[in-house]
Structures are given as structure tokens and as C-alpha cells.
Known about the structure:
Low-confidence stretches: 159-171, 338-375
Strand content: 15-25%
Shape: globular
Strand order of the largest sheet: 1-10-5-8-11
CATH architecture of the largest domain: Alpha Horseshoe
Number of domains: 2
Radius of gyration: 22 Å
Oligomer: single chain
Amino acid sequence: xxxxxxxxxxxxxxxxxxxxxxxxxxxxxxxxxxxxxxxxxxxxxxxxxxxxxxxxxxxxxxxxxxxxxxxxxxxxxxxxxxxxxxxxxxxxxxxxxxxxxxxxxxxxxxxxxxxxxxxxxxxxxxxxxxxxxxxxxxxxxxxxxxxxxxxxxxxxxxxxxxxxxxxxxxxxxxxxxxxxxxxxxxxxxxxxxxxxxxxxxxxxxxxxxxxxxxxxxxxxxxxxxxxxxxxxxxxxxxxxxxxxxxxxxxxxxxxxxxxxxxxxxxxxxxxxxxxxxxxxxxxxxxxxxxxxxxxxxxxxxxxxxxxxxxxxxxxxxxxxxxxxxxxxxxxxxxxxxxxxxxxxxxxxxxxxxxxxxxxxxxxxxxxxxxxxxxx
Length: 375
């Protein structure tokens, strides 16, 4: 998170130098979005619209931000404004339009089919990975399995096969892993999703909920109840590692709150307990990776997490690896399109000494950087 906070400082200095430069405001708005500071995102976008009332990109980002905040009414209003301003002859503008339409109509099969019809009318879609990604997501919402496979094949051929769209297949029922993406994340990135655990225990379905900040799009929320999650025995192929849980502690409901992490192997059981004073340090931070201060050397272990019902929190995954810090905040990428940095115009040459270079910005705000942190 530190790099994004540094980015905000640079963008703020640049804004002081040139307060009417919409390129800088766009970049800062994106950084605020990643940091989940949505009110400041909207403030910067408001400034852009004041400076340039016909700036369609600002309305696109406003709609996206309201959608992420679950303020659907305002998201729809901004979408309509964007629709009035976007360049019909520009393929990127069309892609943004279809992206918003898809997000705002996920539960409307009729509208999703209408979006598909419009996307399929575009020539040479095979060469446009963003449109392919959107079309693939729509096919997945509509459970059009043959079409999903076609899109996945095209994405693979373009060498832009993104992990969100890994082919579906039954791969490891003993671990509850029932699709290729979860298999890839477990075998290659040593990540075990809680959604896998739900596949092993039907009673956990009541605690499962959707969350766009999860790579699997499903998380566990105890919903203020006591919960004990006992994972299957997991194998890993590295020696001397840490256990890292991705959690989101939203609220402490009682001072007697407790989170207990348990690690078992053939010879011993170790525990790490977070009490009220410990939970206070992570409540309200959003999604974080919490690294247990325990070194693990065994190849086979069984992990558990116990919550005593006094905490409102979500659990996404557990993974094997190592972070520099015990607590690592995870940026909220929400529903930003991949390669969204290309949506924003590059910094004018005149101001190149006041802003990050294009390469620096792409490295800083590239969605794949976030995914790569899991490796």
C-alpha cells in the first residue's frame, strides 16, 4: 500500500503545480480507487468534470466508483451520462460502455444477451482482449459453456489468458477444488480458497457471499455467529514458510472477541490467538493478508480458524509463503478493467518532469502486479 500512498503524494504535488491538468487528476483518482478512498475519487472526478464537462472518461470512472460503493442508482445515472458523451467510433470507448453495461446488468439475462449481440457485431473482436474478457464474463453469467471455451481459447492464443477465466474442470474433490482456476492457484501459487471448503461442507453455504475483491468472487462471512473452519490436510512444495490468511475485519461487536488460528501436523499443534487489543489493529483496514508469526517446516499440515461470534469479518483464502510484514493491506481493484491505465491518456510531454513516467505508472497501477504478489 505504501507505493500507492507515495503515488498520491506525487500526484498531489503535481496538482499544486498544475491544478487544471486533468491527466494528473485521472491518475490520482485511480490511485485513490485502489486505496478504497472512494469519496476522494469522486472529488477528483468532480474537478475533472468542472474543468472539462465533456470528459466522458470521468463519467465512466464515476459510474464504476458508485458501482463499487454499491450505490447503483448513481452508477446508473453516471452510466447514462457516459453513454451520451462516449465516442461511438472509438473501440476503447465502446469497450468501457459494454463494461459498465455488463456490471449494471449482471442479474438481467435479457440485457446480457443484448450486450452480447452488440459485442458480436464488432469486427475483429479476436484481436481485442478486453472485449473478449467482457464477453467471456457474460457467457459465464449466462452459463454458456461452449462459448466460454471458445473465448478462453482465443484469450490463450493472444497470450493474455487471465487467471479469472481458467477452464472449468473437476480436479481435486478431496480438497473441494472443482475448477481449473482454483487448481492453478493451489498448485502454482499455494493459495487455498474458502470457497473450496464450502464444496466439502454444504452447511457452510449459509456463510458464503459474493465479493468482487476475491479472485474466486466468493468469501466466507460468519455473520456474527461462532464459526470453526477446519480445512483438509494441505500439501505444499516449499520448506520453511509462513501461513498467510486473507481476511477483512469490518467491525468488533464485543470486547470479548477472539480469532484463533490453529496449525496441526502429525507431532504437534500450534495456535496463534488475536484478542481484542490485537483485533483493534486490523479492524477497518479492509482486506489484508495476516501472516502468522510461526515458521512451518512440515510438508503436510491441517489449518483451522475459530471465530467466537463477536466479530463481523470475511475470510477469502489461506496461502503458504512469506510477506515482509505481518499485516499487508490489499488494494481494492474492484471491477477495474485489465490494462485500465491505457484508458487514461498518457501524460503530455510538456509535463513529463512533474509526473511518473508511463512505465512507472504501468508498473504502479497494473492489476497483474497485485495478482503476481500471490506467487
